Amino acid sequence: MDTQAEDFARPEDIAAALNMRRIAIVGLSSDPAKPSFAVGNYLKRHGYEVIPVNPTETEVLGEKAYASLSELPEPPEVVDVFRRANKLPQIVDEAIAAGARAVWFQQGIINLEAASKARKAGLIVVMDRCMKIERSLR
């Protein structure tokens, strides 16, 4: 593990993000075979409010899907991202503008520039970790 990436998986940040209840999942798919669906379904079953953000979906897990974070009717607490690393800078900008308190880049999604930008803007940042796995460990 890259030691700089590890700085974006601090236990206190993971705990703080998991304590937030309203999660916008960018890239949430209605396809049960996709990891985003498994994570979103798990979080919803464990009492989280899951907000799908995906321009190719209209509804996921019984929730209205939004094309972008800017379309959300209220700020998410956490923006959980299932998109390629090169999309993270734009998503971080949208998360900041939307009033998010934290960004979570799923396992295998690493962009140190985007993570640093989010942290400098005052957001909690977790990178290269899975919300489902981290929640199940608690």
Folded structure, characterized:
The protein is of the alpha/beta class and about 140 residues long. Helices cover about 35% and strands about 20% of the residues. A five-stranded parallel β-sheet has the order 2-1-5-6-7, with helices on both faces. A two-stranded antiparallel ribbon has the order 3-4. A hairpin with a 2-residue loop joins strand 3 (about 60) and strand 4 (about 65). Helix 4 (about 90-100) runs parallel beside helix 5. The longest helix is centred in the N-terminal third of the chain and has 11 residues, at about 35-45. It starts with a helix and ends with a helix. About 40% of the residues are buried.
The end-to-end distance, rounded to whole angstroms, is 22 Å
> What is the CA-based Rg, rounded?
13 Å
Report the sheet-strand fraction. Answer: 15-25%
Q: Sheet bearing the most strands, described?
A: 5 strands, parallel
SS-based class: alpha/beta
Percent helix range: 25-40%
H and E order: HHEHEEEEHEHEH
Biggest sheet, spatial arrangement of strands: 2-1-5-6-7
Would you spell out the secondary-structure blueprint of this structure?
Layout: H1 3-6, H2 11-19, E1 22-26, H3 35-45, E2 49-53, E3 59-60, E4 63-64, E5 78-81, H4 88-98, E6 102-105, H5 112-120, E7 124-127, H6 131-136
Parallel strand pairs: 1-2, 1-5, 5-6, 6-7
Antiparallel strand pairs: 3-4
Helix pairs in contact: 4-5
